[in-house]
Amino acid sequence: MLAKTRSYALNGVDGYAVGVEVDLNAGLPSYDTVGLADTSVKESRERVRSAIKNSLLRYPLHKIVINLAPADSKKEGSHFDLAIAVAILAASEQLEGRAYQDYVFLSCRPRTPPKPRTSRARKCMLWTICVKYTSC
Predict the structure, then answer these.
(1) Kind and range of the H or E run holding 85
(2) Is the model's pTM score more than 0.85?
């Protein structure tokens, strides 16, 4: 099953759209991230798995492939975690309907405000922006 969510990343002080695509396949459980993701993005595996399990939801035991598009732009930081988690839940059919497709998902720490990303998102389309602030 394939699910897509939206997020935004920073390029200097400007934001740009990032599509988060999650595909669940049969096979040995694994978690692969593609699309020029740096180490902190690839480490999302443990953060996302813990968040889903601690939310009393089921973490899928499938081969999970996460594509961060566009592939030619470097993605860094943990602010894709929420978009990845929602896409995994959607791909594993734990979310009802497709309302999640109307949102932009950002995870931000208080020291990295989402303003540049959210202002760019609002210029491009009229999406609702779901920002999850985490503690330091």
Answers:
(1) helix 81-91
(2) no
